[in-house]
């Protein structure tokens, strides 16, 4: 009888207005909770259902609303009775659970159990404006199986939906800030392997929520509290006749009462724009929970970038332990080490793009930065052994959002940016986004000015329920001189003439002598189509073009008097083109009781570097580093021109990966990739080329003794083809092998950490020939090894208190080499490094909206070159910030290097030591709608 009764109720409910299907009065709710414990199920259900139906039929002619209330009452009773009561809590379950399972399944079990046959996929999330506030729609082919469980605590609405997974077109969680007046943020995330969480944070009060379903999916309608309102006056004669509600000591203030006509308020503490991101695609090329990935990976979200007001990628990576800058913050390039090794593997939305290294990465268009530690050739082909940085760009959103921001700061710093997104048509199938920025600063170095201009439009076309196409473009223009740092003698080493000031500029102040102008253009698309719930096709393409006009001034030798610095000048115009195409299929299937997530793909790449003008060396007068005189006449005669030697690199990669769930708490990842790469150097005397084949495996295992803890181990390899462009010499490909053990812990739903132990062996290493002062010649060493421990933590400790940071111990040294002594430490790699950024926002009271930020960044002593001839001292940099947000206004005051400590970021030999910036203050004012 239970099954037939359920079908009958479902049939009736389908005829009722959708907004009454799950919404019911508080008095009914409390009566049901009391009676569900005391009364038998069948007699009560039949009696109430019969009474409601008969009563509704008699009053059919008098109005539809009476019918709705009667049937709604019956449905409410049935829904509550078939679920177990949760005495002593504020949890309200608003979904109808099959009565056959009601006595064996509670909400805790629902969150912890997994039955793949009952997993429901949420394929899209939309946020629409309504007369009351907003509605959040979870689209799903089986929306009727989504059964939310809600909790009341704090200042936000949260609904956990067990036995559900997010598979959004963006391949990540959904979040949006300030979608309506009174709503701070809306996010839909994967709380754990089988639970989707909806969080809506109110600004000044607790949102009121109504739940209903429709043909579109599961719908949450939320009415924010914009201001404190007096109690609602009764409207009906019955309500007027009832006495006013009197508080009692037995009823907590937030408990619903029998006299209230409003829908139940479902409120819980939530974090607006939180730091913790539970999923990432870099490690597996699939949307996988970080706790299920057998490799260390850290995500730096957009909120951290905004809170710290970083302007380039190197600054953002300070938040990742073990990632250390190996060039100046004023460099036109991106350069850093990961796990002790220099990194040249920066990908964008999962696609290789070497122009990310040869020009600055613009922060304004970044949604999050994913740091994958260790080799990743199994998915991305050529790459360094230390790790991979994946830049995830912002995507168009279906809800309109407009943000404008301006910055003013120390050293005549001025900047501004915009971020606009929303639909272009009424049915929201065409979505756009536009990011743009302009930034200028004089910097603390004399005569060193930079300008950067950037624009990034994107368009998403929702071609159908299962098909989506996103087009993206990005143009940037940066102008600056070359930062060549200062000699070690006079900075970190003694100089008989005294100490050099950190603002000293050893270049020339004239563009015709010293300049570095770079323009880049990127165009690409991302196409996705779902054949079914289990099979998906993806095709991604990216084209990049970089044009460089550079007069590169470089130091060659510091004379014995410690005064005179010999210099050279290299004049060049060159361009780089990169084409990358990746096509893959993702499928979910079973072999018996074992789950598989299979990834099969093919990618193609082509990279061309060539000259656009004359490339030649020019004589340049030396300079007195303690009394510099800058002159146009310092440039002398031209040296013979370099031969036009374009470089063409091509690659074909075929990869296969299987994520296997052997048991609920035991997962295995097997992957392999075969690459064929060719490199060709052309010059007037002929051409030289080289082809290499490489197989890159990965094996990983994850064991989860509980939902909060994961132990993992992995073995992976990498390869990278290397070339000396100056001597037109090709080298043997570099190889890397890693063994890693680790543990991941979710301390709470909003706080997680990773502990990793690893060893990486790197062979056939390419490094700079120190005998060539120009730094343009390379040699190939024997072997280097890195061992270490890493600990990172990200998330929310208490409501309003967020942190990101960690500690890294790195033992990176030369183990085999013909020229470098064995045991020498690898340059620019500290043995100890620590970073911690924390932000706290006042949650209530007159100071609500005020926030504070504090950051500590420690970098230990490290060597300045592979010969270990000198070292850079350790340092601690302290950053701080004040934040204020109210309604649409956002203001921030950031202090970098608060205590004005002198420190050195990195060194490239004893002639190029890069000092860090002194105290810097930035004020940012933003407005968002």
TrEMBL record:
Topological type in the membrane: Multi-pass membrane protein
The keyword Lipid metabolism is assigned to this record: no
All residue ranges annotated as the AMIN domain in the record: 124-221
Predominant location: membrane
The entry's keywords: Cell outer membrane, Ion transport, Iron, Iron transport, Membrane, Signal, TonB box, Transmembrane, Transmembrane beta strand, Transport
All residue ranges annotated as the TonB-dependent receptor plug domain in the record: 290-388
GO biological-process terms attached to the record: siderophore transport
Low complexity bias: start-end ranges: 243-252
CDD domains: ligand_gated_channel
Region entry Disordered, spans: 227-261
Family: Belongs to the TonB-dependent receptor family.
GO molecular function, one term: signaling receptor activity
Entry annotated with the keyword Signal: yes
Protein known as: TC.FEV.OM, iron complex outermembrane recepter protein
GO CC annotation, single: cell outer membrane
Location of this chain's protein in the cell: Cell outer membrane
């Amino acid at each position: 009888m239970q099954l037939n009764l359920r079908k009958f109720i479902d049939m009736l409910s389908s005829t009722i207005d959708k907004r009454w299907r799950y919404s019911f009065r508080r008095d009914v709710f409390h009566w049901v909770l009391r009676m569900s414990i005391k009364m038998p199920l069948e007699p009560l259900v039949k009696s109430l259902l019969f009474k409601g139906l008969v009563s509704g039929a008699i009053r059919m002619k008098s109005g539809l609303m009476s019918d709705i209330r009667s049937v709604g009452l019956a449905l409410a009773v049935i829904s509550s009775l078939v679920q177990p009561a949760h005495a002593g809590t504020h949890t309200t379950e608003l979904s109808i659970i099959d009565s056959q399972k009601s006595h064996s399944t509670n909400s805790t079990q629902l969150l912890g159990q997994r039955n793949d046959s009952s997993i429901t996929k949420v394929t899209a999330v939309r946020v629409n404006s309504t007369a009351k506030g907003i509605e959040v729609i979870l689209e799903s082919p089986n929306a009727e199986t989504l059964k939310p469980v809600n909790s009341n605590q704090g200042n936000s609405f949260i609904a956990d939906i067990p036995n559900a997974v997010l598979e959004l077109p963006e391949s990540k969680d959904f979040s949006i800030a300030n979608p309506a007046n009174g709503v701070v943020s809306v996010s839909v995330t994967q709380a754990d392997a089988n639970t989707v969480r909806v969080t809506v944070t109110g600004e000044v009060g607790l949102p009121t929520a109504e739940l209903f379903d429709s043909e579109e999916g599961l719908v949450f309608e939320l009415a924010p509290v914009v201001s404190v309102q007096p109690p609602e006056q009764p409207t009906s004669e019955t309500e007027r006749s009832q006495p006013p509600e009197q508080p009692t000591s037995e009823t907590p203030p937030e408990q619903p009462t029998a006299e209230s006509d409003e829908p139940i308020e479902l409120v819980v503490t939530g974090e607006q724009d939180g730091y913790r991101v539970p999923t990432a695609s870099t490690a597996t090329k699939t949307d996988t929970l970080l706790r299920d990935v057998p490799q260390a990976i850290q995500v730096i979200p957009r909120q951290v970038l905004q809170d710290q007001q970083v302007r380039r990628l190197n600054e953002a990576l300070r938040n990742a332990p073990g990632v250390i800058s190996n060039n100046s913050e004023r460099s036109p390039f991106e350069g850093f080490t990961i796990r002790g090794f220099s990194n040249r593997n920066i990908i964008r939305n999962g696609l290789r793009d070497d122009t990310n290294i040869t020009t600055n990465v613009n922060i304004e268009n970044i949604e999050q930065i994913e740091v994958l530690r260790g080799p990743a050739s199994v998915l991305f082909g050529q790459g360094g052994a230390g790790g991979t940085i994946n830049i995830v760009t912002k995507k168009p959103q279906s809800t309109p959002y407009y943000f404008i921001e301006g910055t003013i700061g120390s050293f005549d710093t001025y900047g501004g940016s915009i971020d606009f997104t929303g639909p272009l048509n009424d049915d929201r199938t065409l979505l756009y986004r536009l990011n743009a920025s302009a930034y200028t600063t004089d910097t603390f170095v004399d005569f060193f000015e930079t300008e950067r201009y950037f624009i990034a439009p994107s368009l998403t076309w929702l071609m159908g329920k299962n098909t989506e196409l996103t087009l993206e473009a990005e143009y940037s223009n940066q102008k600056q001189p070359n930062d060549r740092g200062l000699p070690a003698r006079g900075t970190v080493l003694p100089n008989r003439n005294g100490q050099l000031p950190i603002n000293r500029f050893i270049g020339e102040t004239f563009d015709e002598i010293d300049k570095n102008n770079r323009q880049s253009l990127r165009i690409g698309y991302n196409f996705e189509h779902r054949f079914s719930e289990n099979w998906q096709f993806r095709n991604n393409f990216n084209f990049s073009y970089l044009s460089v006009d550079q007069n590169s001034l470089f130091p060659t030798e510091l004379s014995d008097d410690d005064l005179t610095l010999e210099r050279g000048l290299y004049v060049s115009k060159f361009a780089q083109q990169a084409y990358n195409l990746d096509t893959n299929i993702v499928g979910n299937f079973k072999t018996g009781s074992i789950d598989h997530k299979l990834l099969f793909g093919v990618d193609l790449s082509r990279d061309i570097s060539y000259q656009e003008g004359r490339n030649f060396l020019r004589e340049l007068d030396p300079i007195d580093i303690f009394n510099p005189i800058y002159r146009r006449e310092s440039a002398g005669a031209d040296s013979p021109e370099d031969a036009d030697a374009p470089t063409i690199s091509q690659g074909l990669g075929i990869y296969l990966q299987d994520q296997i769930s052997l048991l609920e708490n035991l997962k295995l990842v097997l992957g392999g990739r075969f690459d064929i790469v060719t490199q060709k150097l052309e010059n007037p005397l002929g051409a030289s080329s080289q082809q290499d084949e490489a197989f890159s495996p990965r094996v990983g295992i994850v064991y989860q003794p509980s939902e909060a803890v994961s132990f993992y181990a992995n073995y992976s390899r990498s390869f990278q083809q290397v070339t000396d462009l100056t001597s037109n010499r090709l080298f043997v490909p570099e190889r890397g092998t890693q063994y890693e053990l680790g543990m991941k812990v979710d301390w709470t739903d909003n706080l997680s950490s990773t502990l990793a132990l690893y060893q990486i062996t790197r062979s056939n290493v390419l490094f700079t020939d120190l005998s060539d002062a120009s730094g343009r010649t390379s040699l190939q060493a024997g072997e280097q090894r890195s061992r270490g421990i890493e600990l990172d933590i990200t998330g929310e400790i208490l409501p309003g208190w967020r942190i990101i940071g960690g500690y890294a111990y790195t033992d990176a040294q030369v183990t085999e080499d013909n020229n470098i002594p064995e045991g020498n430490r690898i340059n620019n790699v500290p043995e100890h490094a620590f970073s911690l950024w924390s932000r706290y926002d006042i949650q209530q009271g007159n100071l609500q909206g005020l926030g504070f930020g504090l950051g500590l960044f420690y970098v230990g002593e490290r060597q300045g070159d592979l010969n270990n001839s000198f070292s850079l001292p350790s340092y601690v940099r302290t950053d701080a910030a004040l934040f204020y947000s109210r309604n649409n206004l956002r203001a921030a005051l950031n202090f970098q290097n608060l205590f004005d400590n002198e420190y050195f970021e990195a060194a490239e030999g004893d002639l190029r030591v890069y000092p860090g910036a002194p105290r810097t203050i930035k004020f940012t004012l933003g407005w968002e709608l």
